[in-house]
């Protein structure tokens, strides 16, 4: 189980984010001050840090800089209402790998966390499908599957978000000319080529599920 350290001094938001991450299979330590985060980071090994910037004791930027200074290379996502360019750039300068601007939907953070851990993998297995990230290559029962660029983009969006409903707006971003008809066409082509069941959740979007 992947272990995450979450630093957020807004308790309502922090608890919401923690519950969402835990419900999706992550082990989360939640703290509200920079000093607590330092203590936790020294006591435990984490696969990911999620730091708010404007927090008590020591802000998230200085916190990460101090951790990088002692060779802690844990990937870090910053979340903050401080969205000026200077703050964002400093977040990356001190070693952050992503930045989410408040306000945001909690699910946005979940997507970024999922993608972070998926990107660490070399391949994903789904039924009789193997997806090799580096080459963007799809194997089905050991045989290569060739898709159009649009269908490959849609496939990758689904395979990175198994068991999550992908909205039509997200899928439209994969299309050159986004229309309802074009989306149905490419999804049907993808289903026929891969054998993957892509469910239409009426009024919400589409999903592939792994039991």
Describe the structure.
By secondary structure, the chain is an alpha/beta fold. It folds into two domains: 3-119, Rossmann fold, CATH 3.40.50; 123-207, Arc Repressor Mutant, subunit A (Orthogonal Bundle), CATH 1.10.10. Helix content is 41%, strand content 22%. It is built from eight helices and twelve strands. A five-stranded parallel β-sheet has the order 2-1-3-4-5, sandwiched between helices. It has a four-stranded antiparallel β-sheet with strand order 6-7-8-9, with no helix packed on it. α1 (11-23) packs across α5. The longest helix is centred in the last third of the chain and has 15 residues, at 180-194.
Give a topology summary.
Blueprint: E1 3-7, H1 11-23, E2 27-31, H2 34-43, E3 48-52, H3 60-69, E4 76-80, H4 85-93, E5 98-101, H5 106-119, E6 123-126, E7 129-132, E8 137-140, E9 143-145, H6 149-159, E10 166-167, H7 168-172, H8 180-194, E11 199-201, E12 205-207
Parallel strand pairs: 1-2, 1-3, 3-4, 4-5
Antiparallel strand pairs: 6-7, 7-8, 8-9, 10-12, 11-12
Helix pairs in contact: 1-5, 6-8
């Amino acid at each position: 189980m992947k272990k995450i350290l979450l630093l957020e001094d807004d308790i309502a938001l922090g608890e919401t984010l923690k519950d969402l991450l835990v419900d999706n299979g992550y082990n989360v330590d939640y703290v509200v001050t920079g000093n607590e985060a330092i203590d936790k980071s020294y006591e435990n090994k984490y696969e990911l840090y999620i730091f708010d910037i404007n927090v008590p004791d020591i802000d998230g930027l200085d916190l990460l800089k101090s951790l990088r200074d002692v060779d802690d290379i844990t990937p870090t996502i910053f979340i903050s209402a401080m969205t000026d360019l200077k703050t964002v750039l400093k977040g990356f300068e001190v070693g952050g790998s992503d930045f989410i601007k408040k306000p945001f939907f909690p699910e946005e953070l979940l997507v970024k966390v999922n993608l972070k851990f998926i990107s660490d993998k070399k391949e994903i297995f789904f039924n009789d499908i193997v997806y090799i990230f580096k080459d963007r290559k799809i194997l089905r029962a050991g045989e290569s599957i060739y898709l159009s660029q649009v269908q490959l983009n849609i496939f990758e969006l689904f395979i990175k978000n198994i068991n999550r409903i992908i909205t039509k707006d997200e899928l439209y971003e994969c299309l050159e000319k986004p229309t309802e008809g074009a989306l149905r066409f490419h999804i049907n082509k993808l289903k026929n080529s891969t054998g993957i069941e892509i469910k239409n959740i009426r009024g919400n979007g589409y999903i592939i599920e792994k039991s």
